[in-house]
């Protein structure tokens, strides 16, 4: 009897995604959904919007309690979720909870972008979707269809951020904005890259030399970006072809001491400083913690300290 291709696994990676020989994709985590609304703990309101119905791009918007600031214009944060480009969404409990807390503390408007996921929508789809979402946000600099952004947003104080794959995306949209611009009135002040998902052909610093680990990392990248030129593709290794100049004034890079990706974040920070870009680069390492620890244990002392740093970065003039 012939094997059933819909039951026979072709590839399974990092316990996050399983792809069958039929092409069927099974996500092993990160697929929960919580409704938008008013968070009772923070007073932050959220709602879901469609940015491009044809492409399937949407977002969850977050607005802090503005009752005490009725005439204030607030910074706007465009956030890109992590998940190796193939799991998670802005509608999951962990990202909704994280952004409720961040928005309440930083007093910013957040736009958490839902880009299409690989492998059904391989890269560069996520980059295209993410840039389209950023341009949609920027279009509200002089008004626009979305009331929260038009009435309360200051697009002259625009930030991009993300964790893991989302930090990779944040880098690339900030770079693309420098090439093509965002239009009159919109300006990216800063980019906060949290445990960025970068890699490369050759190890850097104390990065693992273990062949199996490196091959597994390469398989994940080739799964989400089958048209890649390799592990020194600038999509995954932004330092491969010189300066990764960004359209912002300052960059915060957060790395975690026990994270496989730590050395890449450190190398990125140093490369950005040495590139002649001219902006301000701050790198902070949280010792003893793993990848996206602030999402896994948000009440820990180190996660709270991480949150304070991110709030301070967004609130600086």
UniProtKB/TrEMBL annotation:
Q: Which residues form the Alpha/beta hydrolase fold-3 domain?
A: 77-294
Which PANTHER family does this UniProt record tie to the protein?
A: ARYLACETAMIDE DEACETYLASE (PTHR23024), CARBOXYLESTERASE 2-RELATED (PTHR23024:SF577)
Q: Which residues form a coiled coil?
A: none
Identification of the protein by name: Alpha/beta hydrolase fold-3 domain-containing protein
Query: What domain of life?
Result: Eukaryota
Q: Where is the active site?
A: 164
Query: What are the protein's GO molecular function terms?
Result: hydrolase activity
Source organism of this protein record: Ensete ventricosum (Abyssinian banana)
